[in-house]
Design goal:
Helix content is 78%, strand content 0%. It contains seven helices and no strands. α3 runs antiparallel to α7.
Length: 235
Amino acid sequence: MKNALRKFANSCAEKIYNTFESSSGNMILITTATGILLSTLAQSAAITVNKKYSVSQKAFMIPQELTEGVISVATLLLTSLLLKNCAGKCVESGKIITKDLKAYLQQNNLAEKIGTKDYSVTKQINSLIENTKNTDLFERSTKEVQQSLLSPHENALLNHEKTKDATSAIVTTAGSIISTALFVPLIRNCVAAKFQPANIEIINDVRKRKAMYENKQIAPKNNPVYNNYTDRMRI
């Protein structure tokens, strides 16, 4: 049993590491969405235990809070993922590239189609690595010489991955800000407008019942001085 739990924990840890290690943007996105979700659940729980709200008010407020939370998370994911994917394509095609990496591609005569739709920086570098490994010089060389031959290409690939990761983090953060500051308030207002008529009806009903009780227009149950809970007294 312990071994099974250990394997499960290691598997989960490995999946989490693989998800976050290659993209800081994924970590920012998931943690932000989780924070919004937990905040929504906390707000709903606070409404549930708040004695100042009636049952009818809670029946309205809790679904509204949960709906707004789902909208916030969905809008965040949609906005951030869209921007993240677009930025990732720009980096991969070379439209967004560091000065050193561009110089490396130019030195190896691989910068002619850079920035075009079908261009891939990763594929170009990997092709150089494969071509280097297939040369006679590489096969006859010692491990130290082989590593020195591969080192420029591997460093270029590593720098490219770092650029992708940094761009992913920046764009995801920007997407979160845009979503929270712009899109979520607009959508929440639309949802609130849908809930508003029901809210007004509930509030008016509560006020009406309260006024009726205060004015003693509702007869107490089993009171013999009232006839069928009407204003006519039994004589």
